[in-house]
UniProtKB/TrEMBL annotation:
InterPro entries: Glycg_phsphrylas (IPR011833), Glyco_trans_35 (IPR000811), Pyridoxal_P_attach_site (IPR035090). Its EC number is 2.4.1.1. This is Alpha-1,4 glucan phosphorylase. It is an enzyme of class 2 (transferase). It comes from Azospirillum himalayense.
Length: 824
């Protein structure tokens, strides 16, 4: 038994190999000859998991014994992607594992490919949460992620005749070796019912929530391995279970089948991730998901707190709860309910505790993305919470400065209830009011929060808004995804950068070193070859490895302006055909991204890109100097192949609309030059990499604001005065790219003209084309291009999510690193 214990922890090649063979037989139940690639993935994952359990328990025990202050990151999304490569790298056993598999006649890279991509998120917000988990563990911070264990992650995207079609993403189909089910960690969560008033033991008015429906939240834990493997934190995801009434009920014939149906319906709560990432749908199931995971998480947090404490006075000293956008903002009313109704804390004290415990991150200024639940729905689904929200609101409005000043306009804007039209609960206002700190995700975004959506709140609470510019984890996005470049960097400056990305600045002096440049180019070329092979496999298109890889990968959105990019592609296509004798810089335009299934305009843009690609890629007159590809099913795994291979990074949102962007950081860190507007974190990227090493174009946020306010912008005039834009649009409108349906793109043309071009595609077109020309010209000079690419990589150290997370830790959470104690 003892030797088996040691075997399970052994990190050397022989020990790993013996573990693999044993796991394959005794847990996967296969013989080496019959094992599939998936069997091997499960085998290796289970054996690797063995190697982290001890340290996981040490970490958890240390936090408990020291009663350390923990941070709880509540997020409806965690876009974690695959975990095998990440676990191996963070444990530092990649090479041993590779060799052990070699000895069995297997290739680690093939085994890795059998892991499904855990896509429990839509885009930036979900991936940020995943980067933060990595950084909290790597910085030894006592941090927990709390979310939902969706059975179906973000849909799988395929193109059928160029149109996006959605398929279910069944990541759990073959089991998940990383998760530990905790059937004993089970909390009741209620919905519907009504509120009863009564007198408590001292004769005070009190309330109880009765006749409610009950669902159970069951925990599944996933270990989060920090770099070096010393700290191993926990991601706890909740799954909906019908109550035990079902298991122990006895039913007559008809009632039995009904009860089974009811059980299935109840458990639908955690079935599927909502695929919208900007339009608030107002769907009841979504509200229930939000409350479900928030309530379970808060109950769990309070249970943990009460292991060491007998009243709630020091909750804010022991727990910091971060709200990832407003999705868990109902937690503010829920904590009030738990404290006041269940634990008998008086209101004012409960409110102080709540505010001192919560903080809120805003990720968007888009009005259509701000959550606002109809009062009628909230009253029905969460009647006690609706009361509590009214109470919070009444007390706040009574004391606010606006009332003192007699400013009713301001008062109604501050209200938690939007009284216009059907009455709605403004979740952003609730999150703001119930938090001691509120942050934006880039300097510009935070500034705009103060000036726009939260201007009135900012006047009331001038200290509350602060900035935390996003970051990305260098482990996954450089060390793991870009091994050629990572090895090159380490050969010159050592491997300290993996843990402390600021060290990467030491590369700057290598930008003038011709040998280093050559090696940097060689690493990039290797990555481009890998991407070219992937493109060929996914789309059947052959691209030139030495062409300029111009990459725009992100969700499909009008504000992100994939349309601007494809219009420029059409213009470039025309120029190439008009001037066949010119020696053109070969360009490969690479797009990838999913559209929300109900977002028709975004889906039409996908079809347009595919239609344009078909025409351009088959036109011999451009001599392969231009290729356009739209890769299907963009996800974390695809991003790991794309980011390292990019030359040019498209960050071209309408200024003022992209809160931060994080793909921009991944691309720049991997040595891509940015072509972008002064939006989101692009502003800070420019400050760090230097104005000479980035292509900035277009209207600024201020200019966009003025232009829209003045009403003085006429897209038809702009189009008429720009022949290449006019020609591109005419080609679309006459069906050059859609001969089977010439009117297909009418809605797009309409939006750009009569629609007023809200996203200012036409307004920025000419400046964008000039910036593209500058990029192509520079690309001819490979030495100069490489020099700038190196300076991008070297100057991106500040954008590590370790830096971001330490800012949260010191300026918002007041949590500190805790080194796990390992028993002898
Ligand atoms: C309300 C619901 C439909 C909803 C669901 C998901 C609304 C928004 C979202 C997701 C938003 C999101 O991903 N925002 C992105 O967050 C990133 C991390 O801060 C930013 O970098 C990026 O600019 C922003 O669009």
């Amino acid at each position: 038994y003892k030797s088996r214990e040691i075997e399970r922890r052994s990190l050397d090649v022989d020990g790993l190999k013996r573990s693999f063979l044993e796991w394959l037989v005794y847990s996967v139940g296969k013989d080496a000859r019959a094992a599939t690639r998936r069997d091997w993935f499960h085998t290796v994952a289970l054996a690797v998991r063995d190697r982290l359990v001890d340290r996981w328990m040490d970490t958890t025990r240390t936090y408990y014994q020291q009663d350390a202050k923990r941070v709880y990151y509540l997020s409806l999304e965690f876009l974690i992607g695959r975990l095998l490569t990440n676990s191996l790298a963070n444990l530092g056993i990649t090479d041993q594992c590779r060799q052990a598999l070699d000895r069995i006649g297997l290739n680690l890279d093939d085994v890795v490919e059998a892991e499904p991509d855990a896509a429990l998120g839509n885009g930036g917000l979900g991936r940020l949460a995943a980067c933060f988990l990595d950084s909290m563990a790597s910085e030894a911070l006592p941090g927990y992620g709390y979310g939902i264990r969706y059975e179906f992650g973000l849909f799988e995207q395929r193109f059928e005749h160029g149109w996006q079609v959605e398929y279910p993403e069944q990541w759990l189909q073959f089991g998940n070796p990383w998760e530990f089910p905790r059937p004993e960690v089970l909390y009741p969560v209620q919905f519907y019912g009504r509120v009863e008033e009564f007198r408590d033991s001292v004769g005070e008015r009190a309330y109880r929530w009765v006749d409610a429906e009950r669902v159970l939240a069951m925990a599944y834990d996933t270990p989060v391995v920090g770099y070096g493997g010393d700290t191993i934190n926990t991601l706890r995801l909740w799954s909906a279970r019908a109550t035990r009434d079902f298991n122990f009920g006895h039913f007559n014939d008809g009632a039995y089948m009904k009860a089974v149906e009811q059980k299935v319906l109840t458990e639908n709560l955690s079935r599927v991730l909502y695929p919208n990432d900007a339009t608030e749908g107002g769907k009841e199931l979504r509200l229930k998901q939000e409350y479900f995971f928030t309530s379970a998480s808060l109950q769990d947090i309070l249970r943990r707190y009460l292991q060491h404490h007998s009243n709630f006075d020091s909750l804010p000293d022991k727990a910091a709860i971060q709200l990832n956008d407003t999705h868990p903002a109902i937690g503010i009313a829920e904590l009030m309910r738990l404290l006041v109704d269940q634990h008998g804390v008086v209101w004012d004290k409960a409110w102080d505790i709540t505010r001192a415990t919560f903080s809120y991150t805003n990720h968007t200024l888009l009005p259509e993305a701000l959550e606002a639940w109809p009062v009628r729905m909230m009253e029905r689904v969460l009647p006690r919470h609706m009361q509590i929200i009214y109470e919070i609101n009444a007390k706040f409005l009574n004391r606010s400065k606006a009332r003192a000043a007699g400013d009713n306009g301001r008062l109604s804007r501050l209200s938690l209830i939007d009284e216009r039209g059907d009455r709605r609960v403004r979740m952003g206002n609730l999150a703001f009011l119930g938090s001691h700190k509120v942050n934006g995700v880039s300097a510009l975004h935070t500034e705009l929060m103060k000036q726009t959506v939260f201007a009135d709140f900012h006047a009331e609470f001038p200290e509350r808004i602060n900035n935390k510019t996003n970051g990305i984890t260098p482990r996954r996005w450089l060390h793991q995804a870009n091994q050629p470049l990572a090895a090159l960097i380490t050969s010159r400056i050592g491997n300290g950068w993996i843990k402390d990305l600021s060290q990467i600045s030491a590369l700057a002096e290598k930008a003038d070193d011709l040998v280093f440049r050559e090696e940097f180019r060689r690493a990039k070329r290797k990555n481009k070859k890998r991407l070219a092979a992937y493109i060929a496999r996914q789309t059947g298109v052959d691209v030139q490895v030495d062409s300029l890889f111009d990459v725009q990968v992100k969700r499909m959105h009008e504000y992100k302006r994939q349309l601007l990019n494809i219009l420029q592609a059409i213009a470039l296509y025309n120029e190439m055909r008009d001037n066949p004798t010119v020696s053109w810089v070969p360009v490969t335009k690479i797009f990838a991204g999913k559209a929300a299934p109900s977002y028709h305009m975004a889906k039409l843009i996908i079809k347009l890109i595919n239609d344009v690609a078909k025409v351009v890629n088959h036109d011999p007159s451009v001599h392969d100097n231009l290729k356009i590809v739209l890769l299907p099913n963009y996800n974390v795994t695809a991003a790991e192949i794309i980011m390292p291979a990019a030359d040019l990074s498209e960050q071209i949102s309408t200024a003022g609309m992209e809160a931060s962007g994080t793909g921009n950081m991944k691309l720049a860190l991997n040595g891509a030059l940015t072509i972008g507007t002064l939006d989101g974190a692009n502003v800070e990227i420019r400050e760090h990499v230097g104005d000479d090493n980035i292509f900035i174009f277009g209207l600024t946020a201020e200019e966009v604001n003025d232009l829209r306010a003045s009403g003085g912008f006429n897209p038809r005039e702009v189009i008429a005065s720009n022949p290449s834009l006019k020609r591109a649009l005419d080609m679309i409108s006459t069906g050059v790219f859609s001969p089977d349906d010439p009117h297909r793109y009418h809605p797009i043309l309409q939006a750009l003209t009569d629609g007023g071009d809200h996203f200012l595609v036409t307004a920025d077109f000419s400046d964008y084309c000039q910036a593209q020309q500058a990029a192509m010209d520079l690309y001819r000079d490979q030495e100069e291009w490489t020099r700038k690419a190196i300076l991008n990589t070297a100057n991106m150290g500040w954008f590590s999510s370790d830096r971001t997370i330490m800012e949260y830790a010191t300026e918002i959470w007041d949590v500190h690193p805790v080194k796990p104690e390992h028993p002898a």
